[in-house]
Specification:
There is one protein chain. By secondary structure, this protein is α/β, with parallel strands linked by helices. It has a single domain, classed as Rossmann fold (3-Layer(aba) Sandwich), CATH 3.40.50.2300. It is about 45% helix and about 20% strand. A five-stranded parallel β-sheet has the order 2-1-3-4-5, sandwiched between helices. β1 (about 5-10), α1 and β2 form a beta-alpha-beta unit. α2 runs parallel beside α3. The longest helix has 13 residues, at about 10-25. It is globular, with a radius of gyration of 13 Å. The model has no long low-confidence stretch (mean pLDDT about 95).
């Protein structure tokens, strides 16, 4: 696996914000603007971590997560959901479905960096 983070969000603003935060810390980050784009990316490259939005059109984050976890080539890649959805049970549901963690939007830069470093430095 490459030491790279794949950021998946249908909002380009969110993608660029996360990418600039990570790259300011020397962490390489790639962007996918849809679930389909992310799954196509994973056919070519295997990132160290995926930051995945839940609420996206066509293929939502939970569907993308299921496809990642059901593929032997990608099922070991940790997936952290990043979501604006505010639901007390969502983090547990995400972990039950195979996500490593969940970050609430609006994001806290220190929290994002702590979680990302935890997964890519191991």
């Amino acid at each position: 696996m490459e030491k790279i983070v794949l950021i998946v969000d249908d909002s380009n603003t969110n993608n660029l914000l996360l990418q600039s935060i990570l790259e300011s810390e020397g962490i390489d980050a790639s962007i996918a603007c849809s679930g389909k784009e992310a799954l196509n990316y994973l056919k070519i490259k295997k990132p160290s971590l995926i930051l995945l939005d839940i609420m996206m059109p066509i293929i939502d984050g939970f569907t993308v997560l299921k496809k990642i976890k059901s593929n032997v080539e990608t099922n070991k890649i940790p997936v952290v959901f990043v979501t604006a959805k505010n639901d007390n049970n969502l983090k547990q549901k995400a972990i039950d479905e195979g996500a490593a963690d969940l970050i609430q939007k609006p994001i806290n830069i220190n929290e994002v960096l702590k979680i990302v470093k935890q997964y890519i430095l191991n």
